[in-house]
Amino acid sequence: MLLYTRLCAxxxxxxxxxxxxxxLAVVAxxxxxxxxxxxxxxxxxxxxxxxLLLVLYMTSLGVAVGVRDAGHIGLESxxxxxxxxxxxxxxxxxxxxxATFGVLMAKSGWLWATGKWNEKKPMLGLPExxxxxxxxxxxxxxxxxxxxxxxxxxxxxxxEPAWN
Amino acid sequence: xxxxxxxxxFVILLLMGVPxxxxxxxxxxxxxxxAGLPVAVVFQKMVGGMQIFxxxxxxxxxxxxxxxxxxxxxxxxxxxANSLVGHVRGGLGMxxxxxxxxxxxVAGSPLADVSAMGSVMIPLMKKEGYHADYAxxxxxxxxxxxxxMPTSHNIIIFTLATTGIASxxxxxxxxxxxxxxxxxxxxxxxxxxxxxxxxxYPTRGDFVGWAEVARSFAAALPGLFIIxxxxxxxxxxxxxxxxxxxxxxxxxxxxTGLVYRSLSWKHFLKACAKACKTTGVVLLLxxxxxxxxxxxxxxxxxxxxxxxxxxxxxxxxxxxxxxxxMLFVLGTFLDMAATILICTPIFLPICAQYxxxxxxxxxxxxxxxxxxxxxxxxxxxxxxxxxxxxISVGEVMRTIWPFYGALVAALLLxxxxxxxxxxxxxxxxxx
Amino acid sequence: xxxxxSDVHNSDDYPTVAAVKYMSDLLKTATGxxxxxxxxxxxxxxxxxxxxxxxxxxxxxFTRVNISPMNAIxxxxxxxxxxxxxxxxxHMRKVLDGPVGEEILKDCEQHGFVGLAFYDSGARSxxxxxxxxxxxxxxxxxxxxxxxxxWVALMGAMGANPTPMPIxxxxxxxxxxxxxxxxxxxxxxxxxKHYEAVKYYSRTEHSMAxxxxxxxxxxxDKLPPAEQQAIRKAAKDSVAFQRKKWDEQEAKSLxxxxxxxxxxxxxxxxSFEKAMGPVYDKFITTPDLKxxxxxxxxxx
Lengths: 164, 431, 300
Ligand code: NA
Ligand code: NA
Hints:
In chain A, 71% of the residues lie in helices and 0% in strands. Chain A has helices at 2-38, 45-68, 84-115, 133-155.
């Protein structure tokens, strides 16, 4: 099981590093658009489209890491009123629900990605389907990380954020 | 039938402790199944909801805020605010208010504001003999002004939430928020002073003199310049709102890395990683709220709510009050972005019908939702403040009333006096 | 059944919105009250691109969209979007009512859509802070375009600097001078209040890309033939109504923008037409498309 935790930690760390790279790339795209307009008097028409695509990938990775680091905001005060034993069971159910959402996300993402693979995206010349790949990636990661949380709850230890 | 599924599943999931974004997503899935439509639509709306050019300003503002947080701007703003009002009774409380407002203009979110200013000011105030509850309440309330400052990503979120209902420009709303931000700050100052006098907090030395004020201002200026980049950049037509936000990031890098030289490589990476995670959380909420919005449109929730409210009363002031109360109740349970995204399509049309301009509605909504950040059960700003102050939410809540009351007063002023929101845009932007 | 149809326009009385409502009345009468259509305008169900996809998978029954977002899906829709193709609005209406229009609507069927009708969207022209009288005037101008390869190529062929930007930012962009110009039909120039920002509307009439009414083939195929025919007929019958509404709307908007101080500039269109060679070379690539373009040009 230690192996699984290490796998998830590694995945989360890699996702976050990739997300950081993408964030910087998005800033660069938008800056390049400004430079193109004023310095070259030739607005790069791909810049906006690429920025929007990259931000999807960055966000989906951020979403998944947020699930692992318990970064998504929710209501917790009611659960704390329950006895400890129930609290843990409820927490497991919550993670199962989040995992279910991850499964649906990955599945729907795959449907759209394959269904729109033959349409061309304007400005970039890529398939329209690439917009939906992030759903597949994030959905899969969310499932993996939720399972890690469930295992941790059953064995009674915490999931340590991989990179803070 | 489908609406019942939506409402009940959402409330149950929320009460179970499912994170808000996932609760919205799962209840949307339940609803679409009840309606007999393909589940894939929920995720199409989600992707579509994230892929809007103006939304790029959100990661940029968050990123710039994180860089400033690690890059030493907070300390310099504290020094400037201290030199300005530090000598008044309850001086640290007052300079805290001024500092939070200024830093809010740089970081643009109450959460970033309270993290940055709180970690400097709250320990300092405790050391000087102020009570922890006072320190936390002053900081968390002053930080709310960040939601109205030019870098506020909630301004962008509201602008986008009005798509198809009204045309509100990002620039128009940014300008409209400036005077209300000032009113909020004055109310905060009044509350901080009043409580300080009542508790007999000490004065602290004499006025340091205008030369010292100017010196500390100059030190803080490069950081504060971000406000100018955004306002000036868009007003002069050099940038779009999104481009100005990207430029703010570059400027934050230059200031913290080259001018202040206080941003290490480690801190830089930390700021980047934090920005990515926060962006993920915020944009997921935005995207999935688009799915929620789809059902609201499909089942005509705004029209039905409007008809219901009109049947209760025809008085404009009562309608506005009812809207404020409902926003307040929802804001108690939901995060700011979620409240804005879910409630704008419902309440904007009805307020507009009773004569409130969409821009004024936006300002009102931002203040109202910001107040929700300081109340449990979901009060992110308050939680961070309490964590820094080493004090429980319960203790803070016992003495929150003067501060909270002052901001409620500000909210009512903005709700019932349109000129506070509309005069400045009419002067600066015409029409 | 109460079918659902989407539209992105905000006004409940916008010609395309009104036309589908009118079609609903016709359909209701024809089917003895069995079927009608509810219109969700203001983009309530999504952008044009999103509602096209929803229609394809059967989550939405009808969608009313501009023809441009269909270009990536069925190639023949490219033809009516081509710049300076139609000589006049009358020419356009004649072509779309004729065999060329039928062939394009039919082409949608193999991609999951029943093409029901074309509606008018008028002619798009350039408006900015300076008048455009001939090709020489657009050189180096920063002109806002939609995110579309065709529009970028078109503005490039005019020698302009095509600047893709979301419609919501255009007003500020024009007002502050970030943009020199934008392009659209008169009702949009009016509706988005862009005439308050820039005064010169130059009649380049570079595109007459029409609107389309599409039905989900998945939904259509489940209906008995008599009802399918009733839907097709009601759609066709709504076209004349839409055109009348369109002409009224255009006249009304023209009066509004003129009253607001806008100046209508006549343009040497021939100078632009001559520059369009590269655009046609880039997008009219297959024998089918070339045949259709020729058929349009030959329509008298
Ligand atoms: Na904010
Ligand atoms: Na709250």
